[in-house]
Automatic annotation (TrEMBL):
UniProt cross-references to InterPro entries, sorted A to Z: GPCR_Rhodpsn, GPCR_Rhodpsn_7TM, Prostanoid_rcpt, Thbox_rcpt
The entry's keywords: Cell membrane, G-protein coupled receptor, Glycoprotein, Membrane, Receptor, Transducer, Transmembrane, Transmembrane helix
Family stated for the protein in its record: Belongs to the G-protein coupled receptor 1 family.
Mode of membrane association: Multi-pass membrane protein
Listed name of the protein: Thromboxane A2 receptor
Length: 347
């Protein structure tokens, strides 16, 4: 049985659920975020499919396309309820609508964290443990992993429907999420445990992403220094790996790094609010302002992800992009230009 919270703590005489009375609360924000997000996601998915239809799908391609689809699904399923709330001036549908919206918001957030984390681990294994990667990491197993991530997200985020955890209407009354305002001395133990479990998984994913990316970047730097110090040995080291394969790997890493930076900047504030709101309970409207800033930053992630991919792809095909790849690999530009003239590298 659900125990959904539809009230928002505010100072006396102030109603924090009437959208028309909240500073900065306007329907323009969700509409603009939704339109720019959907346009970018559809464009990126089309670009990704069109660029890759002539070659076998790579594991990274499968994960990246699934991430973009998840962003698109998130925009299409979470925005309508917010728009309706802004249009009518208050939340519509009561607890049932809040349960559905909270479940959707939580699922998309958790699945996104796990997917970006899986992409980071995939690149970590691919760059640092190439033999194991070539033998054990396949697109079919990647699809099973992504399906498992979705099933895990759905099952965990549905727990409040069975009394473990709690959905709550969030300021300014236009969205629902896990109750981040549980009080250690008042709230039921299962709600406190669930909220902190959900937040801890998010933080664990971010730690994994940061570690894997730093490890991969460190490996690329060491490889480049080896090529510069010992050109003959490095030539032998890469004798079984084509220029195209090396450049493709670096492109994947650069795309992942950009997505990771955007992801952390967008999601970390909301992830931190899950814990900070328990330490400093909200007692006034001003206390809620960081929450709305955090959720809008998280919404920007679904917008920037596809555009980041598109910009990276355009950059890779430019002279500037090829010079960057040349610098990372420690190769001469003229040699790379000759090798690349007959290749069209695509993620």
């Amino acid at each position: 049985m659900t125990d959904t919270v539809l009230t928002i703590a505010c100072e006396a005489g102030v109603n924090c659920t009437v959208l028309a009375q909240q500073p900065g609360a306007t329907v323009v924000s969700p509409l603009l975020l939704c339109l720019t997000g959907v346009i970018g996601q559809v464009w990126a998915l089309n670009y990704l499919h069109r660029r890759s239809k002539q070659q076998n799908r790579t594991v990274f391609y499968v994960m990246l396309s699934t991430l973009l689809w998840t962003d698109l699904i998130g925009k299409l399923t979470t925005t309508p309820a917010a728009i309706l709330a802004y249009v009518h001036g208050h939340w519509l549908g009561g607890k049932e609508a809040c349960n559905l919206h909270g479940f959707t918001m939580m699922t998309i957030g958790l699945v996104t964290h796990c997917m970006v984390s899986a992409m980071a681990v995939e690149r970590y294994i691919g760059i640092r443990h190439g033999y194991y990667y070539s033998k054990h990491v396949t697109t079919s197993r990647a699809r099973l992993l992504l399906l498992g991530i979705w099933l895990f997200g759905v099952l965990l985020c549905a727990m409040p429907l069975f009394g473990v955890g709690q959905y709550a209407l969030q300021y300014p009354g236009s969205w629902c999420f896990v109750n981040t305002h549980v009080l250690w001395d008042e709230s039921p133990v299962q709600h406190i445990v669930f909220t902190n479990l959900y937040g801890s998984i998010h933080v664990l994913c971010i730690v994994t992403i940061v570690y894997c990316n730093f490890a991969v970047i460190g490996t690329l730097i060491r490889t480049r220094m080896t090529r510069l110090r010992e050109p003959m040995n490095s030539q032998h080291l890469y004798s079984n790996r084509s220029y195209r394969q090396r450049e493709l790997e670096i492109q994947m890493v650069l795309v992942l790094v950009v997505i990771t930076v955007v992801f952390i900047v967008s999601w970390l504030p909301l992830d931190l609010r899950i814990f900070l709101n328990q330490v400093w309970p909200h007692k006034s409207r001003a206390d809620h302002y960081p929450d709305i800033v955090a959720i809008r930053l998280a919404s920007l992630n679904q917008i920037i992800d596809p555009w980041a991919y598109i910009i990276c792809r355009k950059l890779f095909f430019s002279n500037t992009g090829r010079r960057l790849l040349c610098f990372i690999q420690g190769r001469g530009w003229s040699k790379v230009s000759r090798e690349a003239s007959s290749l069209q590298v695509r993620v």
